[in-house]
Design goal:
Elements (H helix, E strand, L loop, with lengths): L8 H7 L11 E4 L15 E4 L4 H7 L10 E5 L6 E4 L13 H10 L14 H9 L9 H16 E2 L4 E2 L9 E4 L3 H9 L14 E4 L5 H16 L10 H7 L1 H20 L5 E4 L6 H13 L6 H14 L4 H5 L12 H4 L12 H16 L3 H7 L23 H15 L8 H13 L10 H7 L1 H4 L3 H6 L43 H27 L3 H7 L9 H18 L1 H12 L6 H12 L15 H4 L2 H11 L1
Parallel strand pairs: 4-9, 7-8, 7-9
Antiparallel strand pairs: 1-2, 3-4, 5-6
Helix pairs in contact: 2-3, 7-8, 9-10, 9-16, 10-11, 10-16, 16-17, 23-24, 23-25, 24-25
Length: 638
């Protein structure tokens, strides 16, 4: 099959239940952008609320950066809740508003199925009834999250009729701003910003605090810096620098934000609008990952290809700009250190003149920038205006956004190996071909640019490579039955945010080289928990201490038990008679307070005997103190 024809937007939205020939689900396909004049970075096929006309869209686009209005990306097949995406609003410091944009967002959050009953259990009572079944169970938090949608679907899915009873039932619709709050405020000073929620009272807003492209680029550069010396020396990777890179923290933040969106849709039956600055970097990450968590189709090879085509390629992620495919002098500059000690043969040059010319040329360009370079300087994550079509590589615009997305998918695949049809090598080879430039798929920034360049006629699609090698990239652990691909009974998939590891295969390193420190830390933590658990469960004075109080011990009390136990063991070895006496005394002590029990144990150890004045006399002030005073002192110490 021709890889260029694999993705059909109308076929994908038909799979989601949206088509001119199907019953209205509150959404329609518009061709307002068929020639890309409405928005040059959006696809030609857009899905918008049925009640919103194209005329309203024309006025609404003036309020969104680069005219990227809120449009549909995903419609949940069971509860009719949606993921819509856009760019930031042009609110500015005056907090401007746009009635048409408000109408568009409101319509997106209230789409419903004609003929469906909107009656359902009150959200609070419904939550209580579903949560009640978990009380007393041994399910982990992750298992409860995965089973919750199935239980919740039982309340809205009629197995006899095959229909859902609730359509678009909103509990807490959300506008997700992927940026840190301070970044949104800075953009607001520049004439952009975030929504004024006084005008969007039908939703709440959440800032996910995912860093921008510049932070991510610097983070990956630090990872490379930590690994590069291991290629030319026997020294291992610099684990300290790996930790300082913050790469795993960024992966955690992206996965966490995606899981919030997935829960909001699959569990709380709410609509979500996602945007960052221009809506083509972090927005694509969050939207695509949330759909992988929600829809088993995107965990298959065909579904993943459709997802990349839909949420990355067609919605205008700037692959050429972010990947640095085009020329730049930094790619060819010769460093002086690399020339040191080199031997120059007769008739050859040592390259120093070329390096000097590069420096002088760069200086001339810096002090005398051309018009094209001046335009490129304004192309940033927060800049508005038209993207230059034939720009050279701008190093500050290069960022591993798609790399991060694949890393996040790898984390999900590693944690849930039976839920994905494709394997780790599939993701790794896709990342390789992002930079190989062997295929035309990732050579341009938008659908419009690809059509104008006629890449379908002049190049091959990267999907040709994968589709003719399906067996090589098939996951042997994949179990299709686990995903329950019956419509209405899909199981949500969520990440374990405490189990994020380095994708060591991408960097050509062993698991121990990159994850050895993580394994050691996890083993230490596991050992600590095991020790604490054994101390809690083993019989002896600790059980007396636990039963000495009818209330939950304050924080730090368990640590006090551990210290006391260590002291008791040493003292028992030296003076067993005294130890047995202390145990008998503790067992017969008044159990009205845990602090009193600890006091008795300390007295049994004879720790107070070691407290003597310089003359060698025992300090009897503590023992002479009434018991009530001792208890007060113990409370203050705790």
């Amino acid at each position: 099959m021709n890889g260029w024809e694999f993705y059909d937007p109308k076929a994908e939205f038909r799979r989601q239940g949206i088509s001119e020939k199907l019953p209205d689900k509150g959404w329609r396909i518009t061709h307002i952008n068929h020639d890309y004049s409405f928005c040059d970075s959006y696809p030609g096929v857009l899905v918008v609320p049925s009640k919103i006309s194209d005329n309203v869209l024309k006025y609404a686009r003036e309020f969104r950066s680069r005219n990227r209005i809120p449009v549909l990306s995903y419609l949940h097949p069971v509860n009719n809740c949606t993921i819509t995406r856009s760019s930031q609003p042009l609110a500015g410091i005056t907090r401007k508003t746009n009635v048409q944009d408000e109408r568009l967002v409101a319509a997106s959050f209230s789409a419903w199925m004609p003929g469906g009953s909107e009656e359902s259990t009150h959200p609070t009572s419904q939550q209580e009834s579903l949560d009640g079944g978990w009380q007393g169970s041994n399910l982990s938090e992750m298992e409860r999250f995965e089973d919750e949608p199935t239980s919740r679907y039982a309340a809205i899915y009629d197995e006899e009729t095959g229909e859902t009873r609730v359509y678009g039932r909103q509990q807490t619709n959300m506008i997700v701003d992927a940026r840190p709050t301070i970044n949104a405020m800075v953009n607001q000073v520049q004439g952009m910003g975030s929504e004024n929620m006084d005008k969007y009272k039908f939703a709440t807003k959440s800032f996910l605090s995912i860093e921008n492209i510049h932070v991510m680029r610097n983070s990956l550069n630090k990872v490379v810096e930590a690994l590069k010396d291991a290629d030319i020396s026997p020294l291992p990777a610099n684990r300290e620098l790996l930790h300082q890179s913050g790469w795993l923290r960024h992966i955690h933040d992206v996965l966490d934000g995606s899981a919030i969106i997935a829960r909001r849709i699959g569990i709380k039956h709410s609509h979500v609008l996602i945007h960052c600055s221009d809506g083509w970097d972090r927005t694509s990450q969050l939207s695509a990952l949330a759909q992988i968590m929600l829809d088993p189709y995107f965990r298959t090879m065909d579904g993943f290809i459709v997802l990349v085509e839909k949420d990355w390629l067609s919605f205008g992620h700037m692959f050429r700009l972010r990947s640095g495919h085009l020329n730049h002098e930094d790619w060819f500059s010769v460093q002086r250190d690399a020339l040191a000690g080199s031997k120059v043969q007769p008739g050859e040059t040592d390259g120093r003149n070329d390096a000097l010319q590069n420096v002088l040329s760069g200086a001339r360009r810096f002090f005398n920038p051309s018009k094209e370079e001046a335009d490129l300087a304004t192309v940033s994550e927060v800049a508005s205006g038209k993207v230059v079509d034939d720009e050279a590589t701008t190093p500050k615009m290069v960022s591993p956004v798609f790399h991060q997305f694949l890393d996040c998918v790898y984390q999900l695949l590693r944690q849930h190996p039976a839920r994905f049809e494709y394997n780790e090598r599939f993701l790794r080879r896709l990342l390789y071909h992002l930079y190989s430039c062997q295929y035309g798929t990732f050579l341009y920034n938008s659908e419009k640019q690809r059509k104008e360049a006629r890449v379908g006629e002049r190049t091959s699609s990267v999907w040709d490579y994968f589709l003719c090698r399906r067996q090589e990239f098939r996951n042997p652990d994949f179990d299709p039955a686990v995903n329950d691909r019956v419509i209405g009974k899909e199981r949500i998939l969520l990440p374990n945010l405490k189990d994020i590891r380095w994708w060591h295969q991408v960097f050509g390193r062993t698991d121990d080289e990159m994850n050895g420190a993580l394994d050691a830390a996890a083993a230490a933590e596991s050992g600590r928990h095991a020790a604490v658990s054994s101390l809690k469960e083993s019989p002896g004075p600790r059980s007396v201490l636990r039963s000495a109080s009818g209330t939950t011990p304050p924080p730090g009390l368990i640590n006090s038990h551990s210290v006391l136990t260590a002291g008791e063991t040493a003292h028992q070895t030296l003076t067993p008679e005294t130890r047995q006496a202390s145990l008998r005394h503790s067992a017969s002590a008044d159990s009205a307070s845990a602090f009193a029990a600890i006091r008795d144990g300390l007295q049994g150890l004879g720790i107070g005997k070691a407290m003597r004045d310089p003359a060698g006399r025992a300090d009897g002030s503590a023992s002479a103190m009434p018991p009530s005073h001792q208890e007060e002192d113990m409370r203050e110490m705790t």
